[in-house]
Amino acid sequence: MTSECISLAERVTRIKPSPTLAVNAKAKALKAAGADILNFSVGEPDFDTPEHVCEAGKKAIDDGHTRYTAVPGIPELREAIVQRFKQDHNWDYSIDQIQVCCGGKHGLYNIFQAIINPGDEVLIPAPYWVSYPPMVQLAGGVPVIIPLEEKDNFDLDPSMLTKYATSKTRAIIINSPSNPAGSLFSETALAAIGKMAIENDWLVITDDIYETITYSNGKIPHILDTDARLMDRTVVLNGVSKSFAMTGWRIGYSAGPAHIIKAMNKIQSQSTSNSSAPAQYAALAALTGPQDFPGMMTEAFLPRRDFCVNELVAMEGVTCVNPGGAFYVFPNFSHYYGREFNGKKINGSVDLSDYFLEEAQVASVPGAAFGCDDFVRFSFATSMDVLRDGMERIKKALAALS
Ligand code: PMP
Ligand code: GLU
Q1: Which residues contact 354 (CB under 8 A, 6 or more apart)?
Q2: Which of 19-28, 193-202, 314-323, 347-356 has the lowest mean pLDDT?
Q3: Which atom of ligand 2 lies at the shortest distance from residue 247's CA?
Q4: Euclidean distance between CA atoms 14 and 246, whole angstroms
Q5: Hey, what domains does the chain have and what are their CATH numbers?
Q6: Tens of pLDDT along 349-400?
Q7: 98 pLDDT exceeds 80?
Q8: Cα–Cα dist 145/301, whole Å
Q9: Ligand that lies nearest to the alpha carbon of residue 208, given by its number in the listed order
Q10: Candidates 129, 327, 370, 380: which one to mutate for ligand 2, based on the most atoms within 8 Å of Cβ?
């Protein structure tokens, strides 16, 4: 054991490790030690990367693509991303408006590093994905949380924008479909955000990492389609982690105004240089090859979503917004707060999530990590058998609280 005589940077002490990754690590360790854990914690598809994508990655190594690439990514991949945006959304980007990075998380990190000055405020609707506030803080910014209401299906009430915006507001982040609730922003909400952004000179960051996993028929509304002027002030964040079950390959990408992408490239050139070369070739195969994989996964997720939501809302006192996309359910368990098990009181989502893990061997992520303590997140990217067993265990665990 070494002594901790060297103090850490103050910025590190202000943030916590990613709670999603922390619960996942704990669940995996318990499982490895022999515990019968059902892991609903981490958000990643339970599918393998498509074979043709894996083959492209292997071929890239055989072909000698094992060296540094251009900082923003190989031109072929950036061109493919330009084409995908055109085909999927009819948005016009040029290759210098695209950055490939080490996963969607890294893309967000680059964006905040490129645009935030100390004290700048970033509007973050809650429930939010766990990494948004710490990333803003690491860039010296101030996260300003806009609470969304369960009764509105976590859509944004436009009047909240004026309530939470200040002269220091620099940006707003949108995540629709969202992690953790799978909720969607309505066209009305998106148009209101766009209008405020234009009037007040904000950057819009739209995290579209779940865009291919949606359960409604037809295209979901997108902020860029509400006003053409938003192209000049929006960065779109996406990646192949969720859409092509490629979480471990670490390929994300951003599209936005050329001067912002250039600034992000400057930051990337001084940090990770480029994302893994073979992984870039694999992502190229994903984006240019057959596009049926995300749809196939979504079809498999749909009955699982329906099963989880039906089971949860049938439990006494539990409510749950029906997710419009992604692969998470975010039930409200506040009915049980204040109750006890073996003399131990459940004071909130952290206690309840711990209780689920200890007493029911079910791993989940407490809503507090997403800025909403009344809730707990479960990923349903796992088999129906596991879901059935898991829901049964949760039902029993809740019933055991007095
Ligand atoms: N945004 C959201 C909303 C996410 O849930 C995640 C988690 N995977 C990411 C971004 C980052 O994805 P990646 O694994 O590509 O870093
Ligand atoms: N985004 C996933 C999740 O929320 C992966 C974990 C992480 O990157 O935080 O579980």
Answers
A1: none
A2: 19-28
A3: 5
A4: 31
A5: 3-48+293-399 (3.90.1150.10), 67-288 (3.40.640.10)
A6: 999 999 999 999 999 999 999 999 999 999 999 999 999 999 999 999 999 9
A7: yes
A8: 30
A9: 1
A10: 129
